[in-house]
C-alpha cells in the first residue's frame, strides 16, 4: 500500500519507523511518504494559514499550498485513483470496519490540517476530481490531524497481509469478529501479589477456557460498552461483578 501524508509537522511521523509498522515499511509492505506542506509555499515566511473570511477566532489553512502539494502527489501517482482522507473532528467516525475497508485501498493520501480547518474549497476541489473523506477518530478535539493520522495508519497497516506475523492474533480482538470486547489475558506466574490466574485457564480444559473467555467478553462489553452488545445478548444480566 502506498500512503502519502501532507503535514506541517513531518516529525510526528518518525513514529512510523518503530515497531511492527517500521518493519513493514522496511520490508516494502507499506510505502509511506511524508510531505512538508511548507515546501509548497513560495513566500519568505512559508505561510500556510491566514485569517478566516467573515471574521472569527483562529486561523484557516490557505488553499494554494494544499493545491500544489496534493496536485504533486496525484500527478506522481498517475492513475492510482487514491483516496484522500482529511482527518477532522467534523468527519465520519473511524472504526475497525472502516480500517478493514481502507486496508483494501492501493493508495491513501492523508491531509493533516490544524483544527481551525483547511479552506473548504480544497475539499470541494478534490472531491470533484476524485475520492475524498473527512474522518474523525473520536468525539474529542486534537490540535491537528497528525496524531489521528498515525492512529489510522497503524489500525490500517496492521491489517495488511504480512504486517502482523501471526494473522490469528488479528481475529480474537476487540471490535473484530462478533463486535465484543476482548477477554482479559494472563500469563505466568500463576500467582502474583496474592492474585491468582483464574483456575479455569490452568485446567487444561479447552472447552471450559473458551466458554469462560466468551462469558468474560460479554460481561465486559455489557459493563463498559453496552451499546456494542449484539441484540441477542441484551437484557439478560449475569449478575454482579467486582468491577461493576
Ligand atoms: Cl481526525 N482531527 C482533530 N483535529 N481532532 C480530532 C480528530 C481529528 N478526531 C478526533 N478529534
TrEMBL record:
Main localisation: cytoplasm
Substrates-to-products reaction catalysed: guanosine(37) in tRNA + S-adenosyl-L-methionine = N(1)-methylguanosine(37) in tRNA + S-adenosyl-L-homocysteine + H(+)
Domain tRNA methyltransferase TRMD/TRM10-type stretches: 1-229
Disordered: region residues: 225-244
Stored Gene3D superfamilies: 3.40.1280.10, tRNA(m1g37)methyltransferase, domain 2
Binding, S-adenosyl-L-methionine: 113, 137-142
Superkingdom classification of source: Bacteria
UniProt GO MF annotations: tRNA (guanine(37)-N1)-methyltransferase activity
Annotated keywords: Cytoplasm, Methyltransferase, S-adenosyl-L-methionine, Transferase, tRNA processing
InterPro entries xref list: Alpha/beta_knot_MTases, tRNA_m1G_MeTrfase_C_sf, tRNA_m1G_MeTrfase_TrmD, tRNA_m1G_MTases_N, tRNA_MeTrfase_TRMD/TRM10
Any one of the GO BP annotations: tRNA N1-guanine methylation
Keyword Ribonucleoprotein: no
Subunit composition and interactions: Homodimer.
NCBIfam families the UniProt entry points to: PRK00026.1, trmD
Function comment: Specifically methylates guanosine-37 in various tRNAs.
PANTHER family per record: TRNA (GUANINE-N(1)-)-METHYLTRANSFERASE
Family indicated by similarity: Belongs to the RNA methyltransferase TrmD family.
Protein name in UniProt: tRNA (guanine-N(1)-)-methyltransferase
Biological source species: Leucobacter ruminantium
Classification of source organism: Bacteria, Bacillati, Actinomycetota, Actinomycetes, Micrococcales
Amino acid at each position: 500500500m502506498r500512503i502519502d501524508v501532507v503535514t506541517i509537522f513531518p516529525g510526528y511521523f518518525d513514529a512510523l519507523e518503530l515497531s511492527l509498522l517500521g518493519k513493514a515499511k522496511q520490508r516494502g509492505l507499506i510505502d509511506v511518504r511524508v510531505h512538508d506542506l511548507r515546501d509548497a509555499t513560495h513566500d519568505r515566511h512559508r505561510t500556510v494559514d491566514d485569517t478566516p473570511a467573515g471574521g472569527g477566532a483562529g486561523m484557516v489553512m490557505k488553499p494554494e499550498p494544499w493545491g500544489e502539494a496534493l496536485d504533486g502527489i496525484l500527478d506522481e501517482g498517475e492513475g492510482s485513483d487514491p483516496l484522500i482522507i482529511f482527518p477532522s473532528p467534523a468527519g465520519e467516525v473511524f472504526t475497525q470496519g472502516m480500517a478493514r475497508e481502507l486496508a483494501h485501498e492501493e493508495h491513501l493520501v492523508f491531509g493533516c490540517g490544524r483544527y481551525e480547518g483547511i479552506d473548504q474549497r480544497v475539499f470541494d476541489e478534490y472531491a470533484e476530481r476524485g475520492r475524498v473523506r473527512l474522518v474523525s477518530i473520536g468525539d474529542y478535539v486534537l490540535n491537528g490531524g497528525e496524531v489521528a493520522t498515525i492512529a489510522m495508519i497503524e489500525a490500517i497497516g496492521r491489517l495488511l497481509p504480512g504486517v502482523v506475523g501471526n494473522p490469528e492474533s488479528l481475529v480474537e480482538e476487540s471490535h473484530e469478529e462478533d463486535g465484543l470486547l476482548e477477554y482479559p489475558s494472563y500469563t505466568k506466574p500463576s500467582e502474583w501479589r496474592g492474585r491468582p490466574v483464574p483456575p479455569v485457564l490452568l485446567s487444561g480444559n479447552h472447552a471450559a477456557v473458551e466458554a469462560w473467555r466468551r462469558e468474560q467478553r460479554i460481561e465486559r462489553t455489557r459493563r463498559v460498552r453496552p451499546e456494542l452488545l449484539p441484540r441477542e445478548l441484551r437484557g439478560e444480566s449475569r449478575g454482579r461483578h467486582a468491577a461493576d
